[in-house]
Amino acid sequence: MKTLLIATNILFLSIIIYQSCAPTKAVVNAATCPPCKSYAGVPFPGLTTTTARMISVNYKTINQPLLALNHGTVPDANSIWFSLESLKGFIWNIENAACQNGCNSNQLKLGVRIYYARYPDDVSMNSNPDLQVLPHNSSANVVANSFAEHHTIFMVPTFQDAGNPNTQWDFDPWHWSAGTSATNGCIMPTSMAQWFVDTIAPFGSSRSLMLSQTANYLPPAAQNAVGNHGDMIPPGNGSVTGPGY
Fold it and tell me: What pTM was computed for the model?
């Protein structure tokens, strides 16, 4: 009996020592979303610089002159610049909202739609809180250093229709769903088309992920904010010049 007791104690001591030396596994909280996956093994074909330059020149020589402002004296933009952190933050907000609502990329087939857009005149920009931080003038005169009346883009998250793979619905991750019903644990987002059925301002004055200012034009206290207005070239703000195409 004594021999068995000694052997048992030695076994328990060995297990304790092993566990104290073994690497500790992180405890995964069910509410914690996983980090972005690695794409190291995913092929990315890219585009040749020759082709990229050719289609860029096509736009600048054919389309851009037709969009010139102020009787052709002020060129419209031919590129929009985003910081990498803004793009990563934008994508993170989409994926994190999906995770928080029990969904994953396979269920929603998430994507991003890029809309062409046009800023209003200077007077309208001056009276719009969303646009006041961007370069504009206090008068209605169109000048080269203003974003007024220039074209731009904005990005909208999308998810795939459950019954039609050819339909991608716009949605807002910050205003996920009008309901609480779940399919396989995933609360499906409400599409912007559905939000807009009743009103053109479904979220009131509440901010939307789609329409935030880029950090370049935010007050110093908010310089770490993530946004997706982007910086237009031309005119550019002096710190992001240098496009090669």
Answer: 0.71
